[in-house]
């Protein structure tokens, strides 16, 4: 790999926001954070890997839940300070078992729930 | 409006990341930042308004360029610490005059440009 993850721009904590989008539906699934090593691992393994700010550890998405994200395309923005991972998502992306973390809208001043948790067949 | 923007979770600088997605194509256009007042203004005016970290000022998207974002739906994620604005975008979203800021991919270790600047008919 010639691409150097260090050429992206990280914040003062060494992190860059990463948006995950479903490669088929275009649905935005979640937003989490990566550091340069998580970017490198994601590109090298094809398994989307974030940096967990709460656990201060690598977070290979789906490692415990099975809800993995297979990398389809890796993109970044004009300022090189935000990543977009286009993914094939197994199962729900959200820890609430909803397809996407963005399941709440504000409409006419009220919070509206847009989707219900998926029933896990397992 | 009953929804209180202060119920979202902002970082230590009082900011929350906001992803803009085109309401028709599903394309992810850009990512920028809002503070609670920018959230309030966005909801009240229907014109997407960010907080410019470089200028330390409100940034009514398109105010100078004309490339405005009309709010179609306002959503936030399960942790209440990331916003998704679904928008009707006039013209290109990116300051480089590309439709989206995410015009660069990393493929087989190389940076690949996915889209060219739009020609402004004006």
From TrEMBL, chains A, B:
Binding of Zn(2+), residues: 78, 94, 101
UniProtKB keywords: Amino-acid biosynthesis, Cytoplasm, Histidine biosynthesis, Hydrolase, Magnesium, Metal-binding, Zinc
EC category: hydrolase
GO cellular component: cytoplasm
Record note on quaternary structure: Homodimer.
NCBIfam families for this protein: PRK00051.1 (NF000768)
Protein name as annotated: Phosphoribosyl-AMP cyclohydrolase
Gene: hisI
């Amino acid at each position: 790999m010639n691409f150097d993850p260090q050429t992206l721009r990280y914040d003062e904590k060494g992190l860059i926001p990463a948006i995950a989008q479903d490669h088929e539906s275009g649905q935005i699934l979640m937003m989490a954070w990566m550091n340069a090593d998580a970017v490198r691992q994601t590109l090298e393994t094809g398994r989307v890997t974030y940096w967990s700010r709460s656990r201060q550890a690598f977070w290979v998405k789906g490692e415990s839940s099975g809800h993995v994200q297979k990398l389809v395309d890796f993109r970044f923005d004009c300022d090189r300070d935000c990543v977009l991972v286009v993914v094939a998502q197994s199962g729900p992306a959200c820890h609430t078992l909803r397809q996407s973390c963005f399941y709440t809208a504000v409409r006419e001043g009220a919070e509206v729930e847009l989707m219900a948790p998926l029933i896990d067949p397992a």
